[in-house]
Each structure stands twice: as C-alpha cells, then as structure tokens.
Amino acid sequence: MIAPPDRMPLPREFFDRPVLEVAPDLLGRILVRRTPDGPIAVRLTEVEAYDGPNDPGSHAYRGPTARNAVMFGPPGHVYVYFTYGMWHCMNLVCGPEGRACAVLLRAGEVIEGAELARRRRLSARNDKELAKGPARLATALDVGRPLDGTDACAPGETPLRVLTGTPVTSDQVRNGPRTGVAGEGGDGEIHPWRYWVADDPTVSPYRAHVPRRRRS
Predict the structure, then answer these.
(1) Which has the closest alpha carbon to 193: 52, 40, 88?
(2) Cα 71 from Cα 199, distance rounded (Å)
(3) What are phi and psi for residue 121, nearest 5 degrees?
(4) Each residue of 43-55: b (16+ CB within 10 Å) or e?
(5) How many whole angstroms separate alpha carbon 7 and alpha carbon 31?
(6) Does the pTM exceed 0.90?
(7) Spatial distance between the Cα atoms of 2 and 69, rounded to a whole number of angstroms
C-alpha cells in the first residue's frame, strides 16, 4: 500500500542542508516514535537551530566530546542529551558530516498515540501540554540516551522517523531568541534561531537564561 503524501518519510537529503534552512522547514512535519505499545506521532510546532562551530550556544562549539559525538556524524541522525540531571532532549543532526549542526525539537502537538503519551506525562493538565517544551516532548515520546545516534532516515522500521506532514507556510513562521541560552548565543539580534508556528497553543513560553546559583 502506498503511503499518503503527508506520511512519506523525509529523505536524508532533507537534513543535508544548512541548519537555518532545515529548522523552519521542520515546522508542520510529523515525528513518529515507535514503541512496543504502539506509535506516538507529534506535529512539530517549535524548534531551535544550533550551528556548531559558528555558534557559542551549541554543544559542539568547542569540538567533539563523548556526549556530542553524534552531532559530528551524518545528517538525519538523532542526538539525545541529558540535562539538569533530570531530563532528556532530542535533536536532529543536519548539514554535512563533520559540521556538527542540529535542530532541537522544542514542542509539538500529539496527533496519534495520545493515550500512550499521557501515561508518561501525568502532570500535563491537557493534551496541549503533552509535548510543550523539549523535555516534555522527549518524555512523552519515551526518548532517552539509548536512542542517541538513531538513524531517522534508515530503511525499514526505525524507533524514530520524520514524515512529510504539512509544512507551515512562511507567513505562519515566527522566529526569535533561543530559550535559556546564555551569553552571545542567547542574543536574539545575533542568533534569532528559535522558530515556531504563530499562535499555536502547543508552543512553549519563551524564557531567558537565568544563571544557576552555586551552593555555598
């Protein structure tokens, strides 16, 4: 059976482009997570671009480490990191291999498998909050470090896949400073690299970086 146009997997060529092209073009695409209990699908509504060696806000700005190694690999792979000792966040690697660019998936609308997402997001007050924020999105989809390095463009079944969906028209795309990024990387005049769907209720609220206080 032939899949409908909005359910066709995005090819690797989609991700093998400059990160500032890929990021806004991911809005409206469908991210599918296959779990033993069934699939969960999210329509992406908010993302952030990170441009490797040109970006002080990027995990890859100072070069490769064990944590960010996937970012230096081929486009179309999933980079998952653990943050604040509590949460996972997921990114899609893009651009040429070795460039270390990636798009952080910040928020989306759960359009399939909501009952599965609710089991993991018990604190969500409604379905609009199931994937409203990068940690919430990863939690709702049961994404953790074991999925780091997953090839979302591999043939056959893969735990994570991005489908064509319905791309958002340019007049519905907004952009501004990235959330919680410190220093120059958080300057919206220099790096207005957070993109979201205008007026979508699943988009997370913007929060500027707040320095963490060290315990005395």
Answers:
(1) 52
(2) 31
(3) -120, 65
(4) bbbbbbbbbbeeb
(5) 10
(6) yes
(7) 36
